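cron nightly-structures :: item 1 of 1
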Amino acid sequence: MSILSTADSIRETAINVVDDDASGSEPDHRVFSIRRDIRVSTAALETYAFADYEPLVFDAMVVAAAIEYADRLIRRPQLSWSRRFALRIPVHDPERWNAEDVREALTDAVEFLTGDYWTFNFVRSTLPPPTLGPERLPLAPETQAVIAYSDGLDSRAVAGLVGSSLGSRLIKVRLGTVSRRTSRRNLRALQFAGVPYDVRFPDGSNKEPTSRHRGFKFAMLGGIAAYLAHAGSVVIPESGQGAVGAALVTVAHGYPDYRNHPLFTRRMERLFAALFGRSIRFAFPRLWHTKAETLREYLALPTNDGWSDTRSCWQGNQWATVNGKRRQCGVCAACLLRRMSAHAAGVSEARETYVATNLTAATLDGAFDPDFKRNNAALREYAHAGILHLDHLADMADHPHRAEVRNHAALLAGALNEPFAEIEAKLRAMLTQHAAEWRGFVGQLGESSFIAKRAGMKL
């Protein structure tokens, strides 16, 4: 069975995004209310309030929120991947959003990212955009780039590396959701202090865990920030394993993960050009480096802010705590990549950083802190999937996968507009470095480690 089913064979989910309530909505449509289901932090939104703030900015956030709602609402089929959505969204300038170049670019970007089928129709909004205070943030005229910034290691390191040359010409776009209780006074000194909204489900459900919408959400916020700050580029901080590895190594029947990939960001560039009328480029300064190489270079900076307080884990707080204290799980793909990278960079972390304190254990259960109470089947699946992902990515450096790597290099060469031979050489070098770091990491754990046994590695 193909990863993507044909659109005609998939039942369509129609979603009416409405300004206020469900009045007048078709009975067979799902309803997503802007006023009810989007929680806006006005304090955070005001950190986007530059001199040329306009309703278009708020509408772009509404579109991203509607895509998030649809993606989280409908679970993917068990034996295939694709779903089909039709969204009707109110905006303040429907003529612009319904323009052929905008709608085609939007559809292309979202379909490529999610692996689903999408139809968009824009109508006029009757809801005024949030009222912001009279003050407008000062705009540094020399702003050159914005960087997507989270609590992660790559964000910290790459902001430091790029910032060492750009200084104040680099602006951080923080990707955490800001509490509605955060005061304006505490945020007033910041630019782009956090995601100004979050999507609320009345029953608290999140039925689809793959969360491909996050790539669109964060790319859109980066583009909005660049548009408002008159910056020419959005810096993507992911190293090669995160940007390329997730698309190169897929899981079961899963569609490749392009959330931080040049093939997706080039489509977002096309959307920004059509929507904002401005050229905004995505830059990947660490695309051909491993996370360990990035960490090592960052720590060599005399002005680095450290890295031990960054967070890489995919697990929520409730699933990675010991005796009421927040930790990282230590065994998901993101945690294993972090721990492997720290080893390769020659640095270490406190034992209490992770729930899985002992990776030399013969079994996964034996790796966890004795006081950890949330060891369940889902966490064990995350651990096994994480091990296999990093191991399979290392295998890509070997000869049997040559054709697969060459094909991906050809796609990257087109997206980056660079010669194929150069891109193939860079991709192979990154994969070879990853393989050396992974095998060195597993090797120091010993042949009795559950990781070595799961990877089938002969040490």
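cron nightly-structures :: done
Residues 49 and 451 are 49 Å apart (CA to CA).
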